[in-house]
């Protein structure tokens, strides 16, 4: 067991597992099937509402963990070291996952163009789109915005250190009335405030919650997040074409099958990679194992 897995917060890892599963179910939504079943439309809207909190909570957790146990007076070296670590833990996995997605899209474009219909047009061919403005692995916009938030971490620290909750509320007002932006991420700021201003209280509260989570739960979550999207949309296209669901139960069956098969396949792949290629897996998940 590595130092990372020994010094982890198990309740945070449990939250990561719950949120990761929620995101997979969110992306398994049957877009374009609305109106086929009124009951399923209600169920789908409920699931989308329930899972809409997943990404914001991931940002909050990321902000909290970035500043957890931050020194009272962090200097420039502290943030420089943090940024260097994020190159390995975020940037490299982000680039690899987008390169993998690009190869998959190129293969589909070359040998199964029907699989490409409805996804990006020709945008996936443009380098900036592949890695940034898209990105081509669409769900990784979260990682892109998290990279930006980490680069802006000194400003987030100054905001919460000297203005406390009032600065966060002001940022929230900007977010609401001007519009959300990855440059002033309110959710990351909330996590930063929780760690800098209330870190001890939150740590004690989380320590009282007893839960048992596998040692490499965080690595599993990151792997699932990085690679689930292409599998989910491929399963969605294939199953909808094969079944053409119309009733509540067929729609529900297809929806659950997409999410559960994606989770099962990627979990199996993660286990195999971790067993036989542990160093490679460590790079893929940013050193979380």
Task: Reconstruct the topology from this structure.
Blueprint: H1 3-6, H2 10-27, H3 38-51, H4 54-67, H5 76-111, H6 127-133, H7 141-151, H8 153-177, H9 186-207, H10 217-243, H11 248-276, H12 278-284
Characterize the structure shown:
The chain has one domain. Helix content is 74%, strand content 0%. The protein is built from 12 helices and no strands. The longest helix is centred in the N-terminal third of the chain and has 36 residues, at 76-111. The mean pLDDT is 90.
What's the tally of helices? 12
Number of strands: 0
The helix-and-strand class reads mainly alpha
Unreliable spans are none
**Rg over alpha carbons:** 20 Å
Mean pLDDT: 90
Shape: globular
How many separate domains make up the residues?
A: 1
First-last Cα distance: 8 Å
Summary, kept brief:
With 289 residues, the chain is mainly alpha-helical. It has helices spanning 3-6, 10-27, 38-51, 54-67, 76-111, 127-133, 141-151, 153-177, 186-207, 217-243, 248-276, 278-284.
Q: Characteristics of this structure?
A:
289 residues; mainly alpha; 12 helices; 0% strand
